[in-house]
Write a structure and sequence with these properties.
10 strands, Nuclear Transport Factor 2, Chain: A
Length: 318
């Protein structure tokens, strides 16, 4: 009896497995995880030009925040700074579409689960739609992340309610929400701050690369932006066309030159004849040709005319 071995699906055609790996990496986080750990986390799962977008609706209206690659590590760290001890994502009935250089995962039933240890033990389930775009290569990192939050639920264990059943103050505190649309105040404040930080990424990068002062970085960035605005658009380079010369016989060249001379002489005669003919002789009754000038005449008009008298003399009329 022969044993058939099942062949595993190639790694790059399992984009959901990357979310599973990301959940495992987030669970391996410790309290001592510093900025280097979060930078390594973002480098492993996000492209260098990746963007992360969150859309949700608060009491004062709909919100939409988009941050770049340099701000993504700090976003995930603020989730845990707000009292979260565990974070993972659950994708159900996701749809995958393959393109030439990317894979898109559209999950309409995505749940972001956060376990809060403070101010009280609460499990928050944030539901919404998650759209991910992965690069179609061996690394399969996320290029775009867009999470649209629809609703959220905060779950408190019954055991905690039973413990404080006789304490109305604690029950009143347990009945209040600890998040806003599933996001902590730390995360919301950071997203608001990113509205200011995102346009300043060019200044920060220049300061880190060239060790310039903030004022010099601002001057350099503004000058380069001004140069890009006033610089004319680059014209596409045209390839020079090579022309081949055809040899002509002496007889044909002589006949062509003579024909060309005749044509030139005929054309010059026609131009001379047309130049000698005046408008007054061609069109009867035409006695004045208007001649406009920017210099005002005697009456302040900008236009004056030159009239032709019957004797053939020119007389200027204003």
């Amino acid at each position: 009896m022969t044993k058939t071995t099942r062949r595993h699906t190639p790694y790059m055609v399992q984009p959901e497995y990357r979310i599973y790996e990301m959940n495992k990496r987030l669970q391996s986080r410790t309290e001592d995880s510093d900025n280097l750990w979060w930078d390594a986390f973002a480098t492993e799962f996000f492209e260098d030009d990746a963007t992360l977008t969150l859309s949700f609706c608060l009491e004062d209206g709909p919100k939409r925040y988009t941050i770049g690659r340099t701000l993504i590590p700090r976003y995930f760290s603020t989730v845990f700074e707000g009292g979260v001890t565990d974070l993972y994502y659950i994708l159900k009935h996701s749809k995958e579409s393959y393109h030439n250089s990317s894979i898109t995962v559209d999950c309409d039933q995505c749940t972001m689960v956060t376990q809060h240890g403070k101010p009280m033990f609460t499990k928050v389930c944030t539901e919404g739609r998650l759209i991910l775009e992965f690069t179609f290569d061996d690394l399969m990192r996320i290029k775009t992340w867009h999470f649209t939050i629809r609703q959220y639920r905060e779950l408190v264990p019954r055991s905690i309610l039973a413990m404080h059943a006789q304490d109305p103050q604690v029950l009143d505190q347990l009945s209040k929400n600890i998040t806003r649309m599933g996001l902590t105040n730390f995360t919301l404040n950071y997203l608001r701050l990113c509205v200011i930080l995102e346009p300043m990424q060019e200044l920060m990068s220049r300061h880190k690369t060239y060790n310039l002062s903030p004022r010099d970085c601002l001057k350099t960035c503004l000058f380069q932006k001004w140069q890009r605005m006033v610089a004319p658009p680059a014209e596409p380079t045209r390839q020079p066309t090579t022309k081949r010369r055809k040899r002509k016989n002496s007889t044909s060249s002589t006949s062509n030159s003579s024909a060309g001379n005749n044509a030139n002489s005929t054309g010059s005669k026609k131009k001379t004849t047309a130049a000698n003919l005046s408008l007054s002789s061609q069109v009867p009754g035409l006695g004045a040709i208007p001649n406009c000038s920017l210099n005002p005449g005697r009456d302040g008009d900008l236009c004056h005319s030159t009239a032709v008298t019957p004797s053939g003399q020119f007389k200027e009329k204003h």
